[in-house]
C-alpha cells in the first residue's frame, strides 16, 4: 500500500522520486534533440530539388559540341542529286543520273584515318582485289589539283565476269582526312566518270 501525504497526495519512495526529478531535464533534452533533427530534415527537404538542376547545367556545359569549322565543298554536276550523309562519318551522299548500281559518298574522318595505303587496300578489298604495297601507290595514283589542295585519286576495277569499279580521291584538310568515292558496277561508274572527275576538280574549302 502506497503511503499518503497529509494533503492526500501519494508519497513516492525516495528512489522513485529521484527518478521523477531526473525525468524532467532528460525529457527536455530529448525534445530539444527531436526538434533539432526535425529542423535538419526540413532543411534537407528544401535543398534536394536544387541538386538535379545544378548537375544538369554542368552536364550540358560539358556535353555541348563544338561547331565545325569550314569543310570541303564542290560544284554538283548537272543532273546530280545531293543528300546529307546521315551519319558521323558520311558527310554527304551524291547520286549521278545514270542507270545501274552506283553510289558516290563523301566521308570526313579525324586525323590521318589510317593512312593512304590502308585506305587504298580497303577499297581494293571491297571489290575483291588483292592488297598492294607502299611502292605500288605512286604508279596507281593520279594527282588532281583542286581549290582545297592536291587530291590523290585511285581507279580500280575488279576481276571476273561482272566487274565492279571504284574511283576514289583522298586529301588532308585542317587535320582531317576527306574521301570522295564512287563505286558500283563498272558500266554505270564509267558513264558517270567524266562528271565525277569534274566534281573532284571543283573541290574547295567552305567559307567559315
Give an account of the 3D structure.
There is one protein chain. The protein is an alpha+beta fold and 208 residues long. The protein has two domains: 14-63; 72-205, Protein Transport Mog1p, Chain A. The chain has five helices and nine strands, in the order ααββββααββββαβ. The chain has helices spanning 14-47, 50-63, 116-126, 137-140, 186-201; strands at residues 72-73, 81-84, 90-95, 102-110, 142-146, 149-157, 164-173, 176-185, 204-205. A seven-stranded antiparallel sheet has the order 2-3-4-8-7-6-5. A hairpin with a 6-residue loop joins strand 3 (90-95) and strand 4. The longest helix has 34 residues, at 14-47. The protein is globular. The N and C termini lie far apart (103 Å). Residues 1-23 and 25-68 have low confidence and may be disordered.
Topology:
Elements: H1 14-47, H2 50-63, E1 72-73, E2 81-84, E3 90-95, E4 102-110, H3 116-126, H4 137-140, E5 142-146, E6 149-157, E7 164-173, E8 176-185, H5 186-201, E9 204-205
Antiparallel strand pairs: 1-9, 2-3, 3-4, 4-8, 5-6, 6-7, 7-8
Observed structural traits:
38% helix; 208 residues; single chain; Protein Transport Mog1p, Chain A; disordered N terminus; alpha+beta; two-stranded antiparallel sheet
Amino acid at each position: 500500500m502506497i503511503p499518503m501525504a497529509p494533503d492526500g497526495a501519494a508519497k513516492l519512495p525516495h528512489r522513485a522520486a529521484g527518478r521523477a526529478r531526473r525525468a524532467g531535464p532528460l525529457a527536455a533534452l530529448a525534445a530539444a534533440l527531436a526538434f533539432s533533427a526535425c529542423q535538419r530534415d526540413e532543411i534537407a527537404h528544401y535543398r534536394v530539388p536544387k541538386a538535379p538542376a545544378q548537375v544538369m547545367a554542368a552536364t550540358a556545359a560539358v556535353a555541348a559540341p563544338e561547331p565545325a569549322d569550314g569543310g570541303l565543298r564542290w560544284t554538283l554536276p548537272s543532273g546530280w542529286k545531293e543528300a546529307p550523309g546521315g551519319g558521323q562519318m558520311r558527310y554527304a551522299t551524291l547520286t549521278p543520273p545514270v542507270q545501274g548500281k552506283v553510289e558516290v559518298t563523301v566521308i570526313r574522318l579525324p586525323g590521318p584515318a589510317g593512312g593512304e595505303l590502308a585506305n587504298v587496300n580497303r577499297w581494293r578489298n571491297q571489290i575483291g582485289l588483292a592488297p598492294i604495297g607502299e611502292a605500288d601507290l605512286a604508279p596507281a595514283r593520279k594527282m588532281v589539283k583542286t581549290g582545297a589542295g592536291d587530291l590523290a585519286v585511285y581507279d580500280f576495277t575488279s576481276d571476273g565476269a561482272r566487274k565492279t569499279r571504284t574511283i576514289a580521291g583522298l586529301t588532308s584538310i585542317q587535320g582531317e582526312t576527306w574521301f570522295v568515292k564512287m563505286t558500283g558496277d563498272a558500266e554505270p561508274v564509267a558513264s558517270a566518270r567524266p562528271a565525277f572527275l569534274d566534281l573532284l576538280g571543283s573541290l574547295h574549302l567552305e567559307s567559315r
